[in-house]
Amino acid sequence: MTVTHWIEPTPAEIAHAAERLEAGGLVAFPTETVYGLGGDAESPDAVARIYAAKGRPATHPVIVHLSPAADPAYWVSELGADARQLIEAFWPGPLTLILKRAAHIPDAVSGGQDSVGLRCPSHPVAQALLSAFKGGQGGIAAPSANRFGHVSPTTAQHVREEFGSSVEVLDGGPCEVGIESTIIDLSRGFAALLRPGHITPRQIADVLGVAPRLPDGSDATAPRASGTLKAHYAPRTPLALLTLDDIALAVAACEPSERVAVVARASVSGALAALPNVHFIAAPEEAHLYARDLYRLLRALDRASVQRIFVERLPAGPAWDALNDRLGRAAAAFLSEE
Are residues 150 and 243 in the same domain? Predict the structure, then answer.
């Protein structure tokens, strides 16, 4: 992984960013998952600015980020036992809970739904900003700090590439987890996984004593949640998710002048890495390292002068589920072009 040099924001810079948020402005900041584009979650105008900056559909909800000292009960109509158990086990950390929204919370953050997504990030810069914002009791609405549907940012430079100087960015270095939080819905009287992430269904089951329901495409009552559209997380370069055998066939079918990228774990790369028209990327063998590097890698390939990206289909299983989810949604953005 390329080392990114950064200088931790000073207390004065944190205070300035908090003041900007309190005045209705936007600030991008790091979390352990990805960088978020933040605004005051209780200000419909600020939330509207987030949607406008990203080009995000107004019906697609955003997640409210809280400091460790904030009271999540303020945001919801009821904070039940399951929610309290998961908060105790996983906050601060990469877990978002969907709960029934309190009546006084504007529906702008939930895309007009009666629910709200809450999480408490563990990144120290995020915690410093949240602690400074409204005395630590406010909520910052913060989807990923990128144009809607594109690859999420995991460094401050990624955010600058998306928005230039129009968005103030707090630099917290590269994100440790690298993919978005696990989303668990508790708004309907049972636990249901809406988006896989670093925290697995087994970990949730170990806390609750019952496994969350898993998405199977038939749950019509599930609330809309961040990052659950069929096509999402996509680079600008067409991407296909294939088995290694199918990648070999696809590369063989390319014109000799067509330069393509192949992303595969080094242990299964075979002869593909040696082909002259292939820009080969040896991806990490371990799932957590692959996740940390995924979005950085996709952004680098958008700059690599390749016409197509072929990504090795990953193993099934809990360690790889979130990565398969993100890559599947990235590939879905280009299925109409295949």
Answer: no
